[in-house]
User: Which sequence fits this backbone?
């Protein structure tokens, strides 16, 4: 497999996110985000890890962008920190915050690297959470004002925009299970947050297109290939319900199909938060969809799980090998299956894989990180992307998660996903063997 097999229009990249890398949590007028608050609550982050500094990307971005260049990666996806730009979420922008992204964008462009910008990668300004956050419908106007501000500022230089990162995960983990910020639970938080997130993608998509006519506008969606544990009718039906929740709930309303309530009855609860006219507001014709896949899930019927009647059968209980540091099964066909699944929707113009990667227990020995498992992971997944492309499916790009080891949300610093190793005590960076491999692959003919 060589790069040329994918053709010249195929977009190669690497992805990251502001909160996971920037640090500088209160520098130059930045306001607190829900993740700053949540991470400082006792017991919320494994081993008590603290995100205040993380990779210090805010100050060290030239060094990190140099790695992007060294690996010949033409596209760098990163997110903007909303509270760095608008410390209170709304109102007067913080000039120093805006300046930072000017510097970052200009620096990328000067190195010949295209910036791909995610507007919202989970770090809601705390001031807005104090007013209900995603569960408050006002979030639509808050996010729109923020989007208008950054579109005006960076729209002359940034073409690729993504509205949200993984609405399923931030509403599910943050507003239903309470394991991510802001730590809320239950359907009375989840349903309004989910509906507002879905509406926000269309609303802000329309706004970006107006502000920046030449923009390519998208949003990113987590997805996992869902397999029933066996051929029992009950397990097959459970897998279908899980697939509806995990893979279909957020994308289908945007494609004009409405919420998939027919295949998951308990989703009807979301209708309580819909207002007259919302059906017409939900659809938006994105230029592209980012899909983000790491593994598959094997699902069983479960009488004890309310609303869903299904339970994930974890890889460790299935005794499959290999699994990553996250406990996720390495199952490369999943990415092929997901490209195929999303290609079946007739009205998605382009699909990019905007995240794929793996955490393994890397060690730095004599200046080298020999992360063969990650090399294998990337090779086998990229091969499945090629398989999908060769079969004519709608895939046009692939981005590795992630550039540098960073703060992996409630898991802290333990899972290392980077192509570049970071020593969090000294901030020393080391290109891993996987980064060397990706660089060779991208420079191949
Ligand atoms: C995705 C997130 C990203 C990172 C990876 C491992 O769900 O978008 O920020 O945490 O998982």
Assistant:
């Amino acid at each position: 497999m060589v790069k040329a097999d994918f053709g010249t229009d195929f977009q190669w990249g690497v992805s990251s996110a502001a909160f996971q890398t920037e640090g500088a949590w209160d520098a130059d007028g930045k306001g607190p985000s829900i993740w700053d608050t949540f991470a400082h609550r006792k017991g919320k982050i494994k081993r008590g890890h603290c995100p205040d500094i993380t990779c210090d990307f805010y100050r060290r971005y030239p060094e990190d962008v140099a790695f992007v260049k060294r690996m010949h990666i033409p596209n760098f996806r990163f997110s903007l920190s909303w509270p760095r730009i608008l410390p209170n979420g709304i109102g007067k922008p913080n000039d120093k915050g805006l300046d930072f992204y000017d510097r970052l964008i200009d620096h990328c462009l000067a190195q010949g690297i295209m910036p791909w910008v995610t507007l919202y990668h989970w770090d809601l300004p705390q001031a807005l959470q104090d007013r209900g956050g995603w569960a408050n419908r006002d979030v639509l106007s808050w996010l729109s004002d923020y989007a208008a501000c950054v579109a005006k500022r960076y729209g002359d230089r940034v073409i690729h925009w993504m509205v949200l990162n993984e609405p399923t995960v931030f509403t599910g983990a943050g507003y239903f299970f309470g394991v991510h910020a802001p730590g809320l639970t239950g359907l009375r938080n989840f349903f309004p947050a989910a509906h507002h997130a879905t509406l926000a993608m269309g609303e802000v998509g329309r706004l970006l297109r107006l502000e920046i006519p030449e923009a390519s506008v998208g949003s990113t969606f987590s997805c996992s290939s869902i397999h029933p544990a066996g051929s029992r009718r009950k397990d097959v039906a459970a897998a279908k319900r899980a697939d509806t929740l995990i893979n279909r709930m957020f994308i289908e309303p945007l494609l004009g199909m409405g919420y998939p309530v027919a295949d998951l009855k308990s989703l009807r609860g979301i209708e309580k938060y819909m207002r007259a006219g919302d059906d017409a507001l939900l659809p938006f014709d994105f230029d592209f969809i980012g899909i983000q896949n790491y593994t598959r899930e094997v699902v069983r019927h479960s009488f004890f799980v309310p609303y869903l009647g299904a339970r994930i059968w974890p890889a460790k209980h299935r005794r499959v090998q290999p699994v990553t540091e996250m406990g996720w099964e390495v199952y490369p066909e999943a990415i092929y299956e997901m490209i195929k699944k999303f290609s079946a929707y007739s009205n998605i113009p382009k699909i990019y894989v905007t995240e794929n990667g793996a955490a393994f227990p890397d060690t730095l020995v004599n200046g080298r990180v020999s992360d063969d498992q990650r090399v294998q992971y990337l090779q086998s997944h990229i091969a499945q992307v090629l398989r999908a492309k060769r079969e004519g499916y709608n895939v046009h790009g692939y981005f590795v998660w992630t550039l540098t080891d960073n703060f992996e949300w409630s898991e802290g610093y333990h899972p290392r996903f980077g192509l570049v190793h970071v020593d969090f005590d000294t901030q020393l960076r080391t290109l891993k063997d996987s980064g060397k491999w990706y660089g060779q692959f991208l420079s191949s003919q």
Notes: The mean pLDDT is 98. The CA atoms of residues 333 and 384 lie 6 Å apart.
